[in-house]
Write a structure and sequence with these properties.
59% of the residues lie in helices and 9% in strands. By secondary structure, the protein is mostly helical. The chain has a 3-stranded mixed beta sheet with strand order 1-2-8. A 3-stranded antiparallel beta sheet has the order 6-3-7. Helix 7 crosses helix 11, helix 8 (214-246) packs across helix 10 (282-292) and helix 11 packs across helix 12. The longest helix is centred in the last third of the chain and has 33 residues, at 214-246. It starts with a helix and ends with a helix.
Length: 338
């Protein structure tokens, strides 16, 4: 807790009045979350803990131990405590992009650097911020986040917002968040999130295989195939919109063509119930790209290390140190051809 208060003092010294309220809600929200955390071991052994919660905590402990022993992810106190929250999500993220651009607006912070979103501990605060961005002419996407990482600076707890997720989703989320403690590049959200997605996918596959959950593994691989189809759909939309936004067109013409593209994307998203209600706009496309754009490149890197995760992590950390991105499959050949 002292570290958090010290961080607050540093932020207040670095920020002006315009962003003071944002930092205040961020630190207050983090303090509130940490203050509710209780050790998992104590809760599991406590007879007053409801049996369903005890079972989920025991599974989370198993997954957490697997992450450290088998995936070489950090073995520390993160996700070895549990906090009950009175809301459906830990935070709400706001992503925004200009009317004729697929590049997200960045929010910059003293510790985390610049990221492609801004997080809020209340939906109301997120919506207010989003409305201001909309008034400036931006496309906006607001979505709830069940967990986030403090990059190992604090002992992130398990949360009620995700502890009851299906087994595979619980493992995926824990592997993802722990990955951020392995490698993190300031000012490059796409590097960070794509790396974490690569680790989560590999980690879940190995965990399901080694624990004999063949049915869950088959379902997981099926979800991955459907997700790849969705990403291909979004990539195609981005390709067409990128061409549209760089064409020498009058704003009203570009606006009408964009409307038709987004209308078509809305129809395609109906095939994916989980995403059917999301707004088809530049911010949505930018958000998905942040999490998927470099995944094929990181998967290629992992394959080059024959699936050896510690060696893979070292190569990723070297890239992070040199502020470079991994090269996607076929990118070098494409560059030679051009």
């Amino acid at each position: 807790m002292r570290r958090l208060l010290a961080s607050l003092a540093a932020l207040l010294a670095l920020t002006g009045c315009e962003t003071l309220a944002y930092y205040a809600q961020a630190v207050t929200g983090q303090l509130g979350l940490l203050s509710r955390a209780q050790p998992v071991e104590r809760l599991i052994s406590d007879p007053a803990t409801p049996a369903p919660l005890r079972q989920r905590l025991a599974l989370a402990r198993e997954i957490r131990d697997y992450a450290a022993k088998e995936l070489a992810l950090p073995d520390n106190e993160s996700y070895r405590s549990y906090a009950e929250l009175d809301r459906p999500y830990a935070v709400w993220n706001v992503v925004a992009a200009p009317e004729f651009s697929l590049e997200p607006l960045k929010s910059c912070f003293p510790v985390a650097g610049c990221v492609n979103y801004r997080g809020f501990f209340s939906r109301e605060a997120a919506d207010r911020y989003a409305e201001g961005l909309k008034a400036e002419g931006n496309d906006v996407f607001v979505y709830g986040v069940a967990a986030y990482s403090t990059l190992g600076r604090f002992d992130d707890p398990l949360l009620s917002t995700f502890i009851r997720y299906p087994d595979t989703e619980l493992a995926r989320l824990l592997f993802h968040e722990l990955s951020h403690q392995v490698a993190y590049v300031k000012d490059d959200s796409t590097f960070n999130e794509s790396f974490a997605v690569t680790v989560e996918r590999e980690g879940v596959k190995r965990w399901l295989e080694q624990s004999g959950r063949s049915g869950q593994l088959a379902a997981f691989l099926d979800v991955q195939r459907r997700n790849e189809a969705l990403m291909a759909t979004l990539d195609e939309s981005r390709r067409r919109l990128r061409a549209l936004y760089t064409a020498p067109l009058a704003p009203e013409v570009a606006r009408e063509r964009k409307r038709k593209e987004m209308q078509a994307l809305t129809e395609r998203l109906k095939a994916y119930p989980r995403f059917a209600e999301f707004p088809a706009n530049n911010a949505l496309l930018a958000s998905f790209a942040t999490y998927t754009q470099l995944v094929p490149a990181f998967q290629k890197l992992l394959a080059e290390e024959d699936g050896n995760l510690p060696r893979f992590y070292e190569r990723v950390k070297q890239l992070a140190k040199e502020n470079e991105r991994p090269v996607a499959p076929g990118a070098a050949d494409a560059a030679k051809a051009s």
